[in-house]
Amino acid sequence: MIATSAPPAATLSPAPVQDIHDIKPPMAIPNGWEWVWWALGALAVLVILYFAWRYWQKRRSQIPVEPPVPAHIRAKQKLEEALTLIAQPKPFCIMVSDTIRAYLEGRFDFHAPERTTDEFLYELQATDLLLPEQKESLGKFLESCDLVKFAKYEPREAELRELHGSAVQLVEETEPRLISNFEFQISNDDSQIPLETVEQGQVVNRKS
User: Fold this and answer.
1) What is the dihedral of CA 78, 83, 87, 90, to 10 degrees?
2) Residues of the chain under the 50 pLDDT cut
3) Which domains does the chain have, with CATH numbers?
4) How far apart are CA 85 and CA 90, in angstroms?
């Protein structure tokens, strides 16, 4: 009797283990109202900023703005201060002449402080900013000041007060003056001020 051997048992391999993943969270469904609330919030911020800006502009417009001091007032104040230096001829003449140059620049928009006296007087002659006698008086005034500033001339106090008086007189003669309705009519009737060159309320030279 032939013995038969049983076939070897098949080798059983364990089944492959698949990767284990966490459970996915629930997917959020977009809500259309969310964008509406964001838009309303942004609009509210813009409205608040707009009214804040309007309030700031209103407050700013209500703040009183101090008007600038007129050139002739500043000049008179500086000339008054210059009298404290009358015992020192050179500083006195420097302050007085610089005041007049600054006054002419502010009053007539004539840029004088950076020019020499000769340059300034030469250019002034070609303008109608001052009357002929005022130009002549100004020329003598600046030349006298230059003698003290650069030629070491020592004037007496009486001469310095005369220079000071000339400066004050020039300011007073050229300071602005408003023309009233009555003066405006009289001036034009007498042909003293050409109609095409002056209007009501315009400032004119006091010696005009």
Assistant:
1) 30
2) 1, 182-184, 187, 191-204
3) 71-176 (1.20.120), 177-208 (no CATH)
4) 9
